[in-house]
Amino acid sequence: MSAAGTRARGRGRGDAGDVLVVQGLDVTVREQMLVEDVTFTVRSGERVGLIGESGSGKSLTALALMGLLPEGLTATGSVRVDGVRHDLVGADERAMSRVRGRDIAMVFQEPMTALNPTMRVGDQVAEAMLIHRTRPNRKAAHSAAVELLEQVGLPDPPDTARAYPHQLSGGQRQRVVLALALANDPALLVCDEPTTALDVTVQAFVLDLIVQGVLDRRAAMVFITHDLAVVATVCERVMVMYGGRIVEAGPVQAVFTRPRHRYTQGLLGASDLAVVDDRGRLATIPGSVPAAGRFPAGCVFRNRCAHATALCETRPPWTATGNDAGFACHHPADAADAAPTSASEGRQR
Amino acid sequence: MTGSVPQGPGSDADTDPVMRGVAATAPAYPAPAGIPVSPDPAAISVRNVTRDYRRPRTSVLRASEPVRALRGVSFEVAQGERFGIVGESGCGKSTLLRIISGLDHATTGSVHIEGTDLTGRRDRQLRFLRTRLQLVFQDPMSSLDPRMRVHDIVAEPLVAQGRGPSRERVGELLEAVGLQAAAADRYPHQFSGGQRQRISIARALAPRPNILVADEPVSALDVSVRAQVLNLIADLVDELDLTLVFVSHDLSVVRHVCDRVAVMHEGEIVEMGPVADVYDDPQHPYTRQLIAAIPTLSKALSGTTAADLTRETSP
Predict the structure, then answer these.
(1) Where are chain A's structural domains?
(2) In CATH, what number does A3-226 get?
(3) Which of A170, A214, B53, B215 could serve as a FRET partner for A25 with CA atoms 20 to 30 Å apart?
(4) CA distance A144 to A149
(5) Which tens digits make up the pLDDT trace of A329-348?
(6) A58 or A7, which is more confident?
(7) A205 contact residues in B (CB cutoff 8 A)
(8) Is B88 on the interface with A (CB under 8 A)?
């Protein structure tokens, strides 16, 4: 039961099964480039991670997809979603409000701000279906809402449906937000750090629910996080962002065991708490992520990279290593090289 | 392994946490003791501490049930030890930290810092504590006053203790945490999250404390910066011979930083022991669940899915 399959296709862009096609997406504020030339495709049933540190442009990319960029920021390029006849970039608010919540839905980091504090959660989930007229009447929408609350594992769904957001815990609120997002069986689910504010045991349950919800609907998912382990657990494919660009992309297994871009390599080294030097210290990337617009020209990572040369002052071209896979680095780590991180369970100390 | 875990007189055998390798040697402390006479007292000694918070009345007829934030917590941290406290939100770890730091009082039980009892002391009588124990908080933005220059922030503990702030001392501290002395003239907003956390650490080190208490110091930081700050904390603890109490929800960070760890759940320590033992061979069901729920790269790359994380995998 493919949600995408039952809908009218977009104007024949890409292959069958392409749910999201992003081409040359830029986000700019005045003269500054915040997101530059982002291009990727997500197919039906695919779970793709977008990782990067704060300030890398990953959340702006998500907001641009949803048409939710703050005032003053402009997106250019092309974003096509299966089932929507127009380009999402440059679409007016009326057109976007028909797309959001029906064809694409989003789960945000902070469940409290994503919910209306003055409305019962059941009504909020029902409202999402009534606005898009996917249920014939209020009664049907309400019983569908209760069913959705049950699907996301909330205790006593009819009772929880009558609760206000403040009466629920953080994990429960995030489950409600997920129920809301899945209410109209969207073709694309965008998750922006959905579990960052949650405890680990709660995180595990919410991640499981997200994956289940996406699998059941054969929807496509873009999952944004700074947590490499979460992305590796949830996604099949990953894109690494830094300085507003995708610097490396590929299957999770390949990117995380044999990173080619020096930034990916550094990120993996720094996040691996099991590998330490002889003094017991972790590997680090020198310096910190520059503020927006302060990234160096050419390769955005060159001011923190140990391998940088004069060549890196020119922008590295994208080297494709396969379908949806590649990297943009003048001095890539050798493909045959073992990763700096060990995928073994053993602790080396 | 130095911790002698006091088994309080009221402790019940079945609810006792798993205390690895200490139960056999632990001396039974006499009931709520005065100041210990031990020549080399533990850096921190916590005995049977409970903390109840009152809730507002919901009935005219009777008072509300109190919130039992801590339900009898006992442990000791030896001088120079790196002690981790792990638990999820609401487990009481922050309450425990506030009590150890003299920011809150235990309802019952006692806390000794380097042999001095904190019980029943007023704020004014806790001044000695500020020279011995200092805190680093989670959010480096809200724990630094945005209107103060970095120099004044770092010097503030010295001023508060009536020791004049010296320009050299502040410069020295900033350099110790990997910032330039020139940073002293700038404001917190001019720094990144990692740099602000360094300023916070410099401030904590200003009065030359023996004990550093860090409450989730790297939770708000990016991966690449987290490694830098963890390394800095490890360097400083080594160089300055500090005793470290490191609180985190992330067991893998605690495993890297600490020698020994206490796992807290619902106001109690459910398991305590050397980090490698607790991590590799957890005894308490809650610890097992906690460890199973942590997503790691190596687990994920060997095929662990989100559904697997929710299953409590026993070793």
Answers:
(1) 3-226, 249-345
(2) 3.40.50.300
(3) A214
(4) 9
(5) 999 998 655 444 443 333 34
(6) A58
(7) 310
(8) yes
